[in-house]
TrEMBL record:
GO terms for biological process: response to antibiotic. It comes from Streptomyces pristinaespiralis (strain ATCC 25486 / DSM 40338 / CBS 914.69 / JCM 4507 / KCC S-0507 / NBRC 13074 / NRRL 2958 / 5647). Residues 23-510 form the Major facilitator superfamily (MFS) profile domain. Residues 514-524 have a biased composition (Basic and acidic residues). It is found in: Cell membrane. This is Multidrug efflux protein. GO terms for molecular function: transmembrane transporter activity. GO terms for cellular component: plasma membrane. Residues 541-559 have a biased composition (Low complexity).
Amino acid sequence: MSVTPTAGARLRSVGGGANRWVVLLVLCVSLLLVALDATVLHVAVPAVTEDLRPSGVELLWIVDAYPLVCAALLILFGTLGDRVGRRRVLLLGYGIFGAASAVAAFAPDPEILIGARALLGVGGAMIMPATLSILRAVFPDRRERATAIGIWTAVAAVGAATGPVLGGFLVENFWWGSVFLINIPLMALILPVGRWLLPESRGGADGPWDVLGALMAAAGVLGVVLGVKRLGVGSGPLDPAAMGPLLIGAALLALFVGRQKRRRHPLVDMRMFARAAFSTSVGCIVLAMLALVGLELIAVQYLQLILGLGPLETGLRLLPLTFAAMAAGATGSHTLNRLGPRRMVGWGFVLTAVAVLLLTVMGQHDRPWLLTGAFVLLGFGLQTTLFGAYESMLSEAPADQAGGAAAIGETSYQLGAGMGIALLGSVMNAAYSPAVASLSGVPASASSAAAHSLGEAYQVAERLGGPAGELLRSTARHSFVHGLHITLVVSAGLLLLGAVAALRLPRIMECGAAEKHPRPRQDEPVSVPATRGADVSGARTVGTAVPHAGAGVPAGRRPQVSGRPAPAEAAGSGRTAH
């Protein structure tokens, strides 16, 4: 198929001109919507409960359906995008996300809302890895890609942090469905814009797509995340509801890994994990999210239940964290160039640990300046860590497996978040419950109910009234703050463990020739219809330490554009120095 002058010009522009920054803008808007939807519902839960009257289990699924389904399908859609086209998967994700948002906004009962949230998870799983893998394709130069990833990670932080603020504003001024309705006009705009501007890119994998392996990965991740979440909401380690999914999921993931090692054309090349930079980056993402998300959940409870702030005010208090994360993302490329991945990720962990320990000074009275300063350090340190880890992970992975690598990174993000809620939530409960559960002067049934959470303790205290109610309320507040301090110390320990793990990352960021001049795929023409985005084929780097199926292009083979041979491009080693 011939390429018209317009399409050809767009191809050259995306590969080396200013249009790639327009592509980045579209990808960031896509990511912003997905990140917003992960947290925007949190402050709307009371309104949803009042309107739809869901049971406890239904309410849990309303909140968890989106992250569970999204985490389970990331590898499936990330690797599918490498095969059939990342832009194609991304545009389909836009459509599903917009349609699911409309259903969720006007859901008449809990069952339909749960189904809509699950469908949102499907759309999110299509969008998230596709944005990062397209970014990898249109920014072959590592220094420019580092800048792009800094912007990308900052947008993700902005979306997650502003979700509660936006949700609080919408719920207070409209109705709970408006938190979903805002997605529809944005998706209606970005779908045609993305169809026109975004380049198509594919990986270089040959052979059939491993459908069974993709389903095994999806079921395995779903089981692990579900089990971890059940542990996080109070299930015991011997509870079948938690351990059953967890063990089945772990077994399926083990089978998936074994299957990928045996296949000639795997979905995910497990040899990537043999590279210290890749495996360490994935581990650092897990540790960073493990420490952050559980803390964020506890911090929101502290702001609302101890300091008595409303949903909107709580969201505003978290804004310094967002602005600091934006600053870290904007300066991340310069920091990475000066410090290198090892020191950037390591010192990011240390700075975050210092911020977490600073929060232990907080008690039952508001100290806004202390809280703001700690949140600034926390946001900057954590975003610095995530930036360095994501950049190292994506740069270490071959360009033709960018979708699979991006999916692994996003799955690690989701697993870390779930594990953080489970681990830090368990630490919090273990520190909070004993003092409340055996409170003298309060009926045993009331003490037992109050030991579940601070919110429930307030409800029980209000029903009791009198001195017993006041005693229960005061004890629960002191116990919560005590548990918060212990949880912060545990979180700081996890962050320092991440700093030690970061010592395995490369000391410097090296940009080889292959980063600047990626070799196009040899197995298909670069041809693009004039009405569609340009085709940027997933490039293979030559000279990497780990060979990949079909790697290398014979000297006499050159890609064909409109029937004419393309000029030869230099290729070199794209590996980072260790």
